[in-house]
Write a structure and sequence with these properties.
Strand content: under 5%
Radius of gyration: 21 Å
Shape: globular
Distance between the termini: 54 Å
Helix content: 40-55%
Number of strands: 5
Structural class: mainly alpha
Strand order of the largest sheet: 3-5-4
């Protein structure tokens, strides 16, 4: 079996690769993959004792500061940092590709810093999160407030009733899986803040144990988690370079933007959902302003009048780990993807794997060098436009 740096070059995806010219690219790409392939921030950032701390918080009449517990690290951070910065990037002759991998190393090193400082004192994780995910801009906060001015819609149809068990949800996703020509496992977990999430590393859909789902929520999750996140997970596997699986810098904003856009295109994006994304921006902004967990909860529940369960979940998402700013990126990502959709700009490159809009030019260049293959699995959601809600179109068209 011919191999190059532990790559089986007989696989079809390597058929047209000029390994003589790009052997240093593949060596560094493979080295980085060995370092980061088992790293997944969400596996460490989700608290293990959410249910207990929620109970304590509600019992205290919203004054108790939750003391969340987290998984222990399964790696030695300093070893990973040393391995990152030992990569011989100067060997990559193409300046654009060399610059890309320099950005990748900085990004992944920042990810390791995030994971190693979860729940540490002196706001270490928070500052690392700021560097990795950024902070809400003034425009993002204004967009969130603009959305929150709209009156909540009445979702009275049976499909909005949260009456379905986790087992029923699993049965729904097993059936939905038949739409795609890739296979993935489904499991449940109580150590998560979302109703469902995808593990890119394990190629798995994880459902929140004990959660009650509505049919509408299952439809949303099907398009968001399977139709985008798992589609890009399995598309990335078909690419010659591991970067498409491990992720480009700032891919979270683009990938979550695509996922929410799939909700819109499938006719499942409601004003309630848009408001949820807006509350996340407001909550993240409160974190930047120094609000405690109880303060942020009071802002969302006391001032904005969101029900206490949803207010708790939004506050938890933002304050977990010591301050997690990722949640502000869903709304900004949606705006960027929506603007490209309205201008008829092709976004196919973003579905090749965990890609980001900022790196679209280098992806195009690598395509021309046969380093990137055409997309394998289509995101079926984007084949049609089923949104019929004029209010949603008005809001998305007027975000700054």
């Amino acid at each position: 079996m011919p191999t190059v740096f532990m790559i089986d070059t007989t696989l079809p995806k390597y058929k047209n690769i000029d390994f003589h010219t790009y052997q240093d690219v593949f060596e560094i790409d493979t080295n980085i993959h060995r370092i980061v392939k088992n790293l997944e921030l969400l596996a460490y950032i989700n608290p293990l004792n959410i249910a207990q701390e929620r109970k304590e918080f509600f019992k205290s009449k919203y004054t108790y500061e939750p003391k969340f517990k987290y998984r222990k690290l399964k790696f030695k951070p300093y070893k990973l940092h040393r391995m990152f910065y030992s990569q011989r990037l100067e060997r990559i002759e193409d300046e654009d590709i060399r610059s890309l991998y320099k950005d990748i190393i900085y990004t992944y090193s920042g990810l390791v810093q995030c994971i190693e400082t979860i729940s540490e004192p002196n706001s270490k994780f928070y500052y690392n999160s700021l560097r990795f995910f950024g902070t809400p801009t003034e425009k993002m906060v204004e967009n969130a407030k603009f959305i929150l001015h709209f009156q909540e819609e009445q979702l009275a149809a049976p499909k909005y009733d949260a009456v379905l068990s986790t087992d029923q949800a699993e049965a729904f996703f097993i059936n939905y899986r038949e739409m795609y020509d890739f296979d993935f496992n489904i499991k449940t977990s109580s150590a998560m803040s979302a109703a469902a999430m995808v593990s890119n590393k394990d190629k798995m859909l994880i459902l929140k144990k004990g959660h009650r789902y509505s049919q509408h929520e299952l439809n949303v999750l099907a398009h968001h988690e399977i139709g985008v996140h798992l589609v890009t997970t399995f598309n990335a596997i078909e690419q010659p370079l591991y970067i498409f699986s491990n992720g480009f810098p700032n891919n979270v904003e683009t990938q979550e933007g695509l996922a929410v856009m799939s909700e819109y295109r499938s006719g499942n994006l409601t004003l309630t959902r848009l408001k949820e994304l807006a509350y996340r921006v407001i909550a993240t902004d409160s974190l930047i302003k120094g609000y405690s967990f109880a303060d942020t909860f009071d802002l969302i529940h006391g001032q904005y009048k969101l029900d206490r369960d949803r207010a708790f979940n939004i506050t938890l998402r933002v304050h977990r780990g010591g301050g997690f700013t990722k949640d502000a990126l869903y709304l900004s990502g949606l705006k960027k993807v929506y603007d490209r959709y309205k201008s008829n700009t092709n976004i196919d490159n973003m579905l090749l794997g965990k890609c980001s809009l900022e790196y679209n030019p280098i992806i195009d260049k690598m395509k021309s060098l046969n380093l990137v293959l055409p997309v394998t699995h289509q995101a079926k959601t984007f084949d049609q436009q089923l949104n019929t809600n004029p209010t949603i179109d008005f809001i998305l068209g007027h975000l700054k």
